Amino acid sequence: MERFLGIDAHSKSMTISVVSAAGKRIREDVIETNGQALVGYLAQLPGRKHVCLEETELSNWLFEVIKPRVEEVVVENPQWKAGVKNDSVDAWGLAERLRTGQVEIAVYKSPERYTKLRELARTYQALTGDVVRVKNRLRSHYRRRALPYPGHSISAQAEGLDSLPAWMHQPVETLGAELALIEELPRRNPAGHDRGIASLPDLADSRDRTRYRTHPRGTAAADRRHATSLSDQATVLRVLRVRGRNEDFIRLGSSRQALGASARTANSRAQSKLQ
Questions:
Q1: Please, what's the b/e burial string for 156-190 (b: 16 or more CB within 10 A of its CB; e: otherwise)?
Q2: What is the Cα–Cα distance from 156 to 135, expressed in whole angstroms?
Q3: What φ, ψ does residue 143 adopt, rounded to 5°?
Q4: How far is the C-alpha of 67 from the C-alpha of 10, rounded, in Å?
Q5: Disulfide-capable partner of 6 in 95, 185, 259, 261 (CB 3.0 to 4.6 Å)?
Q6: pLDDT per residue over 119-177, tens digit each?
């Protein structure tokens, strides 16, 4: 006896629709978004269970909870379609597409292999976005005074303060310190950068399964691309937590002299590393 489940999950509740192999709508339930509640719900359903859910912030967690308890889990990358949209319609649609093999784009999930790599890459991407935002804010201070931007380095920022009015010094100093701190995070402890991915599997011979077409019953098609070796990209994926006090961080209200001293310290460290 086959059962096809569509799960439309949100932070507080999830809607679950159950369809038989013949396409008959058996039941629909709304339960709390809770691991124990979900496990209990799946346990009381008879038959071989096949589950389809959308790729969202909850999809990794749902996959980990559901996978050991069902025959199949397919995570669909949702495509926009015109028409009525609500939790019930979405859940029935997921179940029906899985039953008929119409899941067009599925997302590959493997929590035991790629979770750490994915989180490192996501964190690096977030830090890169933060750097761009802070740089744009710094530039805007100089544009507001019709002045050329002095540059991103601490020393350039210290020199650029002379051209700004006194009431703008503290905001610019704070943004400069924030920029120095964020840019330093991925570069900390470069000698041990590879330890962050030491426990990851070798991906050189694996395949990229992030997007693939599905045949009926969710069987993956062979249209997959070879993944790129991570040897050259390992450095950028190393993300370390800040430990202790950052020497480049300038407290609110610090003077330009303190900023300049911090710049000289940073420049001397950079020179020593080069030597």
A1: ebbbbbeebeeeebeebbbbbbbbbbbbbbbeeee
A2: 13
A3: -65, -35
A4: 19
A5: 95
A6: 888 888 999 999 999 999 999 999 999 999 998 887 888 888 889 999 999 999 999 88
